[in-house]
Amino acid sequence: MLELKAQNVTKHYKEKTAADHISFTLKNGVYGLLGENGAGKTTLLRILCGILMPDKGAVTLDGISIHKMGASYRTLLGYLPQDFGYYPDFTVKRYLLYLASLKALPRERALTRYREMLKLTGLQEEEKRKIKHLSGGMIRRLGIAQALLNDPKILLLDEPTAGLDPKERIRFRNIISSLGHDRLVLLSTHIVSDVANAADRILIMRRGKIIEDQTPDALLQTASGHVWEVTASPQEAEAIQEQFPVCNVRTEGENLRLRILSRTCPSPHASQVQPDLEDAYLYVTENREVC
Ligand SMILES: Nc1ncnc2c1ncn2[C@@H]1O[C@H](COP(=O)(O)OP(=O)(O)OP(=O)(O)O)[C@@H](O)[C@H]1O
Question: Which residues belong to the signal peptide in this entry (predicted)?
Answer without folding.
Answer: none
